[in-house]
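Escalation from tier 1.

The customer reports that the assembly of three entities below gives different structure tokens on two consecutive runs. Tier 1 could not reproduce it. I'm attaching the input and our single run for tier 2 to review.
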Amino acid sequence: MTTDRPHLAVIGAGPAGLAATVAAAAHGVRVTLLDSAAQPGGQFYRQPAAELRAHRPQALHHDWRTWERLRDGLRTHVNAGAVTHLTDHHVWFVERHADRFTVHALLGPEQEDPAAVHADAVLLATGGYEKVLPFPGWTLPGVLTAGGAQAMLKGNLAAPGRTAVVAGTGPLLLPVATGLAAAGVEIAALVESADPKAFVRRSRALAAQPGKLAEGAGYAAQLLRHRVRTLTRHTVVEAHGTERLEAVTVAALDGEGRVRPGSGRRLPCDTLAVGHGMLPHTDLAETLGCRLDGMNVQVDGEQRTDVPGVWAAGETTGIGGSALALAEGHIAGRSAAVRLAGRAPDPREWAAAARTRTRLREFAAALDAVYAPPAHWSELVTDDTVVCRCEEVTGGTIREAVAEFGAGDVRTVKLLTRAGMGWCQGRVCAPAVAGLAGCQLTASRRPFARPVPLGVLAREDTHPTGRGSS
Amino acid sequence: MSSPLDLAQAHPRPAFTVTLDGREIDALPGQTVAAALWAAGVTSWRTTRGGGRPRGVFCGIGVCFDCLVTVNDRPNQRACLVSLQPGDAIRTQEGTGHDD
Amino acid sequence: MTGAACALYASRADLDVIVVDRGPVAGGTTGAGEGNLLVSDKEPGPELDLALLSHRLWSELAQEFGEAIEYEAKGGVVVATSPGGLGALEDFAAGQRAAGVTATTVAGTELYELEPHLAPGLPGAVHYPQDSQVMPALAAAHLVRASGARLLTGVTVTGVLRTTDGKVWGVRTDKGDIHTPAVINAAGTWGAELAVLAGTSLPVLPRRGFVLVTEPLPRRVHHKVYAADYVADVASDSAALQTSPVVEGTAAGPVLIGASRERVGFDRSFSLPALRTLAAGATLLFPFLSDVRAIRSYVGFRPYMPDHLPAIGPDPRVPGLFHACGHEGAGIGLATGTGHLIAQTLTAKTPDLDLAPFRPDRFPEETP
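Tier 1 run:
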């Protein structure tokens, strides 16, 4: 392998990272693709474990052909020696030096042994994760995220239970419900808090994406086929059970996003797959000093962050789905290839991707407005409801910190209550804490994107490694 | 009635044995601890430090750290990330996960 | 913390108190410390006297607030990593004993009874039972609330208002003026900025520190444990990175690891080399930590003064202005003594300690 070519480290092998890798490699860049999973695909294209020997994994997926192109593109460049794909690498820190970067990873899944990759530039395609707002009983076993139910299904061919309610808000609920139904799980109801009228209000932006509407219609048809009852403008008010989930109560929402008294109805189930949207992973970017725009990594038209040598693409720059991630990844990879060769790119070379990006960003913004969680979700959180799952901090404790001690932001609530100090470092509870504190959610500072053994941290810089895969 | 294995037409090699708190359970090649425990009808495998409440899978993708379990004497492994090998010993954990 | 303590003691001296902060409670260095209440790291002199006074006052406050602020009278163990180091440590302790500090040399079985998980083969240590710990943000929040002071957070002071003969009559903020005859500069690392607003100066500089926080653990570290070289680091004037291991357990479970000192202005970025050095130092003292995970790290800026003593008391250059800042890494521990002394000067009582060493005007004026 020559070392004249500039070396780009791409972090994340989901749609954005794969599109970026293929684009950069096709234009003369040596790429090291680091990803935490054993196989590429990220969340959206999560593959069943190889040992499960699934002959029809496409049955679990949407838009399989796009995946095949990405997968084959990656394979081609790996075989040609342009790309090294490091699997099971959990990146915990990207270190910036004067003229290069060092990507620090832990080898998974035990994450005890270190690895390091030096590169001229870095492309962050770290994806996103699900937002869930708390409600009484949400910590019962059997309650999991909608994306988690999907991940267990896609990656493990594992079903969460026999009877599921899929609830919350967001475009993810549809494929989760249909996927579980196809896998033999009885879906007691799909409970969506959004108001169908909100779709009508955004119809122009939504209609500009006929493909996405067709996708939605396809899911709706599947739900009909599986006889899934859909309740819109409804929300889960409580999950019931002693040691595990046994039932949920769902209720109707009024025009203001408040629960209508007396509208509660009990649905027996052993699984509740719940989600209220997505949040970007921004830890690596924030630690590098990249400017964030709210919760998103800020990028220019070439997908460059404001830190020289750092690109970002996909959900990390703003939640918008897989097709947007592909467009952004492609542009980022093309930009990196030209910039790392010391030239300025001609944006006309990716004009099609840029048009797609603009349209899909508008579409995502329209969806955000439609799929907002119920305005008064916090009224469902009782003083006894656990809000910080890791440290078991209740709504009452958080409210006391706000009312009695003047805590008006997420960090101060954290200092006074421990909410956000546990293993997950506030990834799950921060939106709820912000809501209860009455403030905007801003990105947290997490210098360690993964927990790091002190023995690893204490070691001298490790030699660059290439535990690659084909 | 379909199952995920049927849906994906999966034909893994035969299941092997692992233990959960000394009790033998089956695991399919490639399955994570979480998946094998679900298949065995188990949905929680640790209790929380403060309230002693049961927890299992929540986010399913390694972000929430709810699914922590002890595997082969290593505590605080995320069950949704760790794949099983024959003979692995899974143990439910409580408190900090450390024995002392 | 210092402002909270000033508010508490001033209000208990029957003064009407308003606390103003451009950020939230514990938004500055208080939210980035470990909560050290130490006598062990101070050589005989004004700072140690202040520490002993503060220790007595913290013990009293612990009766009132104890559990709520995670107060632990756990004691400190200062470890020598070489036989020569142990000799130096014992000499240092002898001087401290003469000043009223309880200090006992421990070696062999005694040391490992105090701290069973310490690395084997250490020559010895000195045990300081008076060292304690508190959770700083909780302490600041509780003290402010207990003071009954009016708390204005998110309000920025933009000027200190003075009459034509230079006396303070209030402060200007971005939300309006506050009329007062007495202003306490408890702005910590930002104390120099506030001094300038009052037409005077105070040479407070930031000294960056990082803390590593581990996963929750059962109690394995029983005291505040640190290596003897810590004292030299505190006293150093070097701007370059100084680190020496400081390890302690907390009531909530995680172990906190420090301590690093660098003068890099207000650079909040995380230095991996500094964090590596902290981890290396801690794992040398406590080998079990090698397998323990760091789940986060935080950064803070200690308020550093050129002679390593804080500024406490009235500013002779600006009648009505008082300073209570510049405590470097000892601000939490020294807050109670500082607040008490400030309350005494505000009410024209003779302060329990001679304030001359802490005079805010003791530094040569900067030539314009």
